[in-house]
Predict the structure of Rrf2 family transcriptional regulator.
Amino acid sequence: MNSEFTIAVHSLVYLAYRPDRMASSEAIADNVATNPARIRKVMSYLRRGGYVDTREGAGGGYRLTLDPSVVTLADVYRLLAQGSVIPNWCSGNPDMDCVVGSNMREVMDGIFCKAEKQLEEYFGGITITDVLGQIHECEDC
């Protein structure tokens, strides 16, 4: 999993929390506890995906464009992190003269693909509104 996914979810939840559903990159960065340049990078993906738009000038920033009750974590995962469960390297070599070494890569690829599919299914059941609701529950603790 990459940190851009977490930053994107946090940013979308923060925008959903705000009454005007809008904030500057500096305000989002302060809430996420990272720098504004990193926020702008992640928000550019969200803008291209249609989740936010931008307003220039004084009082400008990023505005949530979709209903947070329909945006799922799976949507965000597919946009920013799909494939991150699957490692870049896997042991073994298909040309080896050993049943373990020659088949390990194919077997592990299947395992990771299934894990990613299950992760996306799980994330598909969680909306930005759900995450915000869990945050509100934390206030009651």
Strands lie at 22-23, 52-55, 61-64.
